[in-house]
Write a structure and sequence with these properties.
It contains 5 helices and 2 strands, in the order αααββαα. With 114 residues, it is mainly α. The chain has 2 domains: 63 residues, Orthogonal Bundle (Arc Repressor Mutant, subunit A), CATH 1.10.10; 40 residues, no CATH class.
């Protein structure tokens, strides 16, 4: 399944993140990305990163800093399933779902992302 094409700004960000990862062996912070690409706010970086994740170009292992990685072919196959699972967990947490159900979903996510 082909990836949706990244915008020009997203392509620039993807190139920067890839170069940074190659040089430092860890991902740039959103603030480092903002400064390097000349953006005025960190939220702009977050929007582009989220877009690149949705399009299958990047993966993010969790909500920790510097967890962004360039997606591999194997990642893109599972990307929609992972996105659904993360969304479902968030929905259920917000709705106050049964903790046992949430724990099961979290374990499933852990198995898929390890």
């Amino acid at each position: 399944m082909p990836k949706e094409r990244a915008t020009k700004k997203q392509q620039e960000m993807l190139q920067f993140i890839g170069d940074f990862l190659n040089e430092h062996n860890y991902a740039p912070s959103y603030r480092e990305t903002m400064v390097a690409l000349g953006y005025k706010s960190v939220s702009t970086v977050a929007v582009h990163v989220d877009g690149l994740i949705a399009k299958g170009y990047l993966t993010k292992s969790d909500k920790s800093a510097r967890s962004v990685r360039i997606a591999s072919a194997a990642d893109s196959v599972d990307n929609s399933h992972l996105a659904w699972l993360r969304t479902e967990i968030t929905k259920r947490e917000t709705a106050g779902a049964d903790e046992g159900d949430l724990e099961t979903l979290r374990k499933a996510l852990g198995l898929l992302t390890d």
